User: Fold these one by one.
Assistant:
Number 1:
Amino acid sequence: MSIREDLEELEKKTLSPYACLSVNTKGRLKSEEQCDIRPVFQRDRDRILHSKAFRRLKDKTQVFLTPEGDHYRTRMTHTLEVSQNARTIAKALRLNEDLVEAIALGHDLGHTPFGHAGERALNKVCPLGFVHSEQSLRVVDVLEKDMKGLNLTMEVRDGIVNHRTEGMPYTLEGRIVRLSDKIAYMHHDMDDAVRAGILSDDTVPDYIGSVAGYKTAQRLDYFIHDIVMESRGRDDIHMSPPAEKAMKDLREWMFENVYRNPKAKNQESKAENLIESLYHYYFNRPDRLPAEYKLLMEKTGDPLERICCDYISSMTDRYAINLYMKLYVPESWLDKQAI
């Protein structure tokens, strides 16, 4: 018996009857030989962790554009916090931590530069539309590994594409990530807003604070504990009605006071204009796309609109800014700026 098979047997003995076992996977898009050491979901986790798309998350905006300070979240630190929250819940419920971690690490791989401002810009300018969760799936299916894709399991793919509010993964592990994503961004975006001087740590209204806590750490602890206690021994992931309402109320309050706050968002129109300009540039000059994207269009027959979104959404904030400067700013001006 291989080490992988030993680990699969251990899952059967130790995990909840509601867990998604590695041996019960629905498989991959393309069949391949099993690893002799790692079960399938651990293997997926490793593939995502070693991908170029994952590394690029470190230079993509979470909420605050060009913040002054080293402690603001990026898309990568957001991803890691989602993963940690999800693993805490999965471990307490004896669900599959490898599956949870793979979904969490991959859920935002398709996110644009400049956070949701970049996503809005591509969705506005591309007639095919743009949704980052769908792009994340495209990254792992098509774009990664020199346009060969990562060939992940169906369970991980399902968790990635359905992590948004509108989705509902079919595994409990995927549902944990879906909630952990919301818990993470409401926690750390509040923390960053406090750091930016937009809010103070105890400014949430009483109808939220009296239920979930007035401090960010208190709310994080409250929501995670509530999910664990409400989901124990059940074939679904639940929140209590008070916690569910508090999360909904907190999300609406965050949109009003942080996500639409002019102090936090006063640069977003510039970022959106930058992304739209890059899209128009390459749509009108497809011969100037990088060679791999032109080959991808020939190979798949995908429309130019989608290929332009593939290229632009893959960029980091820094790469997009530098490319825009190169394409639209006269070289003499760049030289003067450098001086």
Number 2:
Amino acid sequence: MQKDKIKSLTDSIYEKLVGIRRHLHQHPELSYHEKKTGRFIADTLRSWGVPHQHGVAKNGVVALIKGKNPDKKVIALRGDIDALPIQEANDVPYKSKNDGVMHACGHDVHTTSLLGACYILYNTRDEWEGTVKCIFQPAEEKLPGGASIMIKEGVLKNPAPEAIFGQHVHPPLQVGKIGLKAGKYMASADEMYITVHGKGGHGALPHDCVDPVVIAAHIIVALQQIVSRNANPTTPSVLTLGKINSEGGATNVIPNAVKLEGTFRTMDEKWRMEAHKKMKSIAECIAEGMGGSCDMDIKVGYPFLINHEGLTKKAWDYAVEYLGEENVVELPIRMTAEDFAYYSQEMPACFYRLGTGNPEKGITSPIHTNTFDIDEEALKVGAGLMAWMALKELES
């Protein structure tokens, strides 16, 4: 397959891709509620004649595109489809029509790119060998993560892919470029819910109370030792407590309880479980020592994401061939998390970043903000490169 043909096909459907992306952006749906999004994806594939299954993990869609000799090799591509609970502030014709919901993480771009790749692959199926499984995955943004559910429902079987590629928008990267990082790339992500129990009373009479606010303050400071004094310096770890609320406190009222919420992230599964035990022990011992008690609930989230060294090296070469050496850059590790990590724990995987920023057009807002947007020229790279990588890997 010649890259010029893929680029030509991508150019020919570019306006269609823009329309698809804008439709998705106008009609975002939250994790586990992507009913209309899944139906739109299935309807689009049906209009192109692409074989697919709708309703995997409730709202997901899986397309199976077979070339010549389809059993020779199977490769998977993945795009997520859910949105975030954010009120969009952009003044654009395709602004979200769903109040309080926005594609602020670029999943509309991921879905559109994968649809474009499906179109390219299906319309060239007589020119390549093997099978490409295209996974439109729901619920990336919320535990337990749609990837884990799709895997449990057998998305990596019948047929079983040998490798999987995924991409994610990256506003700091100029449109036209992509970024990769081999090896450990993104962190695991666990949620912490802590309740500190004390004995409430009058703020002027603390000696008659057990102040959970003071206990919580000690716990907050002490938990940072998990990273600063317990974690191996060679293992990146982050512990952040981002929310604190008292139950019934006031300027002159000591509350009965204080609630804390936070996240713990790392890139080592053994240390991850050890850290959970240490956190619980520290919090409980501090609370008990100060006359109170503490309940800590740690919800185990996504594992760390590892980009297979060999597959990522090949992906780098594929991208250089398709985009030019100057448009492929190496990225640092990230302590953000992605449920694509579940796939990376099961098989050789490569998760790369798609440049979507353009300072000259004022397109610089980070993901997860209410002004996030993209330079839609990125859709050409997003669709074409996914198809190209799948076909090059089928040939390898």
